[in-house]
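Need the bound structure for NAP, inputs here:
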Amino acid sequence: MNLDLNDKKVFISGSTKGIGFETAKLFLDEGSTVIINGRTKEGVESALKKLNNKNVSGISADFLDNAQIDELIKKIPDDIDIIVNNVGIFRGKDFYSEKIKDWQDHFEVNLMSGVKLSKHFLPNMLKKNWGRILFISSECSSLVPGDLLSYSVSKASVSVFSSGLAKLTKGSNVTVNTIVPGSTLSEGSKVFLEQTAKRENKTIDQVEKQFFEDVRDSSLISRFLSVTEVANTILYFSSPIASGTNGASIRVDGGSMGSII
Ligand SMILES: NC(=O)c1ccc[n+]([C@@H]2O[C@H](COP(=O)([O-])OP(=O)(O)OC[C@H]3O[C@@H](n4cnc5c(N)ncnc54)[C@H](OP(=O)(O)O)[C@@H]3O)[C@@H](O)[C@H]2O)c1
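Answer from helper R.:
Posting the output first, comments after.
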């Protein structure tokens, strides 16, 4: 299948690691020009070194800092073709331990990052009559674990925002879609598995098995998704050949959410 992405300019928020990094790698394999992002210059430099490709550059900016976001927006070319709103944080505190600042930070990074980028870049995409905006939500937006409330609510708001934003593309060749991953073995999840294994004196395999028995028992694949499985889905829905899908939530959740549509 030819994804026809070789002349596309792509920006991916939060892409020095995990799903975002893998997505950058796959876009580069397709010949796209990619801009990656993370909070620090060092993080971005290190990711650029790993990617080792002449078509990739990086912009450090923290999505918790408005001044840095303004600078970031100035550095992204106005004619960017594809924006992947991937950046996301989760702090995993229970409701009573969470501070209001935790709620605000989850909304700033997980939702407002995409709101700010869309406000700036969607009009240009509509003007040139081509573009893709992708949001990365989470299975937690509908499974809603009790210890991830602010994260889950912020992710649900991403899906709502994305669905409404897509309405503004009516009659054009611009699409706005949400990818909804299940539990994925990114850097963050690896640290969680390692720490739990150490704490509970278990192997990583035992912790993973227990997670899918006790916490995510609705998963049909009963294992973590790989970052490549999620990134492949992001690439397809970013591509010109996905022109028939707009305003959609696309699950790559290993069946955990269990809904028919
Ligand atoms: N992993 C999962 O199980 C899972 C499941 C469902 C949905 N998701 C969603 O998928 C997306 C990617 O998750 P992931 O697990 O791949 O993440 P990850 O491995 O934790 O990586 C997060 C990325 O975001 C960057 N980042 C974090 N805070 C930032 C900020 N304030 N400003 C700018 N960049 C920031 C990090 O870069 P630096 O550290 O260099 O700053 C890093 O590149 C997120 O939206 C997440 O909610 C993940």
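Comments: The mean pLDDT is 96. Residues 14-20, 37-40, 43, 62-64, 86-89, 109, 136, 138, 181, 183-184, 186-189 surround NAP (CB under 6 Å).
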